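Exercise: predict the structure of this protein bound to 2-acetamido-2-deoxy-beta-D-glucopyranose.
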Amino acid sequence: MWKKIFALFIGVLVGYWLIDDFNPDVLKGKRVVVTGSSTGIGEQIAYHYARMGADVLVTARRENILKQVVARCKELGAQDGKYFYKAADMVNMSATKEVIQEAYNRLGGIDILVLNHILPIPLGMWDGSPQNLTLTDKVVDVNFKAYVHLTSHALPHLVASNGSLIVVSSLAGKIGQPFTAVYSATKFALDGFFGALRQEFKLKGCEVSITLCVIGLVGTENAIRGLRDYGQHFLLAKLPAETPSDTALAIIKGGARRQREIYHPYISIRVMTFLRDWIPNIVEYINRSMFTVPP
Ligand SMILES: NC(=O)c1ccc[n+]([C@@H]2O[C@H](COP(=O)([O-])OP(=O)(O)OC[C@H]3O[C@@H](n4cnc5c(N)ncnc54)[C@H](OP(=O)(O)O)[C@@H]3O)[C@@H](O)[C@H]2O)c1
Ligand SMILES: *[C@@H]1O[C@H](CO)[C@@H](O)[C@H](O)[C@H]1NC(C)=O
Ligand SMILES: *[C@@H]1O[C@H](CO)[C@@H](O)[C@H](O)[C@H]1NC(C)=O
Ligand SMILES: *[C@@H]1O[C@H](CO)[C@@H](O)[C@H](O)[C@H]1NC(C)=O
Ligand SMILES: *[C@@H]1O[C@H](CO)[C@@H](O)[C@H](O)[C@H]1NC(C)=O
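Solution:
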């Protein structure tokens, strides 16, 4: 009797986990803004949305690369798909307003805002040098403050469309990681800010969804180069990297389902975040053991 009930329970659980109820058609005609979309995961996010029939505005600093991304979206997307770019540096808070204004003017509204950009910085120990402090200010502005400003400018449009905010974070935003102290801090800050905002939305009956994406190692050029340049050959050999395209798809699906958080790759990231409050020393040890201190 109990064996049967247990088997049924496991069956339902596994079945639920295997069912992919995502229907790309729900994204047809959606008006989407993706930040940090000239390369890496953001670029792939733009391509997937284009394939699914959404209209997209891409933004990053390098205009010439954004033009190429828009051209590729046109190849992948529908005949009547609309694709635009706006070059902007997210260290500059007035530029965050211009990006949203441009998106609203071009797309006629905003349904989905994907906050994804980060300032690429070399890995390193934080020893409190003047150089570390200067970089801290810039990283906090680009990786955290710009997210808050972009959200603030886009909020009226997202409220009007019952839209979605998708915030790309990292395992480093749930468990502190060596050689990326300030990056980790900005990702934790996003969890705090958007966690509080979600609470306020529920209190106000605001229908805008917030999806925090907790992702592990992804094989983007910048991530791999950063680890290699800092001698992290052990980690690169031991830890399988996800592809930018698969990661982008997982992010888009989570947003479309209006999920609270997504984990990618699911099992390893879920287990680590699940255990971090119970056995933090062990979880941190496992993570730390992947890294090596360069000579
Ligand atoms: N790759 C991983 O292993 C990994 C793991 C966990 C989480 N994530 C998260 O996934 C997201 C994307 O990562 P990724 O690896 O795809 O990064 P990436 O390839 O380095 O791309 C970063 C993007 O941000 C843009 N950018 C950089 N500085 C900017 C600035 N000051 N103003 C505006 N745009 C700026 C870059 O374009 P321009 O240079 O043209 O400005 C680029 O489009 C990030 O939020 C990251 O934290 C990545
Ligand atoms: C910041 O952006 C605004 C608007 O795009 C621009 O007018 C201004 O010159 C920029 N400031 C800096 C320091 O680049
Ligand atoms: C901090 O500054 C030192 C120089 O004092 C440098 O070697 C190290 O890479 C810097 N760390 C970060 C995270 O930038
Ligand atoms: C947003 O949701 C509210 C409440 O569920 C609904 O009344 C309204 O029509 C929706 N608006 C749009 C644009 O979907
Ligand atoms: C440890 O941290 C790295 C860097 O963020 C991450 O990609 C990796 O998944 C973590 N390793 C483990 C075993 O959790």
